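Weekly modeling sync, notes
Attendees: S.R. (lead), two postdocs, one rotation student

Agenda item 3: backlog of single-chain predictions. S.R. asked that every request posted to the team notebook include the full sequence so nobody has to chase files. The rotation student volunteered to paste the first one in as an example of the format we agreed on. Action items at the bottom.

Example entry:
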Amino acid sequence: MALPDSLAHRLTIPAIAAPMTSVSGPELVIAACRNGVIGSFPTHNAATTTELDAWLHEMQAALDVGDRTRPIAPIAPNLVVHKTNDRLRADLDCLVRHGVELVITSVGSPEPVIEPLHEIGCRVFADVSSMAHVWRALDMGADGLILLTAGAGGQTGWANPLAFVRAVRPHFDGPIVLAGGICDGTSMLAAQVLGADLVYLGTRFIATGESRADDAYRTALIESTLDDVKLSTRVGGIPASLLASWLALDDAHPASEAASGFQQDRLLRNRTAWSAGHSVTGVDAVTSVDELIELIGGQYRLAQEQLRLQLTNSYLQITS
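Predicted structure, as returned to the notebook:
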């Protein structure tokens, strides 16, 4: 494990509840962190920086009370670092004031935020979708890498997850997070066998009572399979994984709308988009966050035991 002990000891499963536009709010983050899963949310989900400040106070206060015998995972605000994000500086200053432990950067170079966050002892994990992005993020001083691969929901990647993790790990001994198609405890363990330390769980958390998704969105997830996940540039100007049912319903943006590169205001105009990754196949009911993490944790432990048995049997066969 490349994760520092100070972080690893606070997790019940090796996962981050992925930051999702309009879906991740204080309720989801608090529930995830209380269950030993890193809770993340895009800072732009708060309508203003003032509201972001209030959210951070609310979340920290909620995590400071209750059962202190259970591991409490950190909050990981997600900053869109693209030049079109007019709130970047204000939101960054807010995170610095709160002394956050972990920040996830998306859509661009983390360079503008690395120094001020490192000055407060905050770790920075950067989204990357290519080896070129990997080298740039590491050159800028990123502490961890989030590999966006084919099958990730929302703004997605194109690389095969097996190939991407194996390409990065020999060159980087820090934390690697795999994003793309992780639907249960078995796939979580498979990611660790590849060389990842953590996984993103996004789509599964949309179908929880604590998410800010509406009932129609949750129902669409339950009724969909990975065949219903389509790539589109409608939402933010770069490829994103969206549900075909939302694309069919959306009349505001014709299918012929050309990609023009990422634009933060375009993303925010499409807050109601139904995003989903290939892991949508694993969504069969709406649960609470508590129930979901308990379920995936049980699957993860069972997969570990099955792997141990398989390795033992293989060793016995070889040595017999």
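Discussion: group reviewed the output briefly. The longest strand covers residues 75-80.
Action items: rotation student to repeat for the remaining queue; S.R. to check formatting next week.
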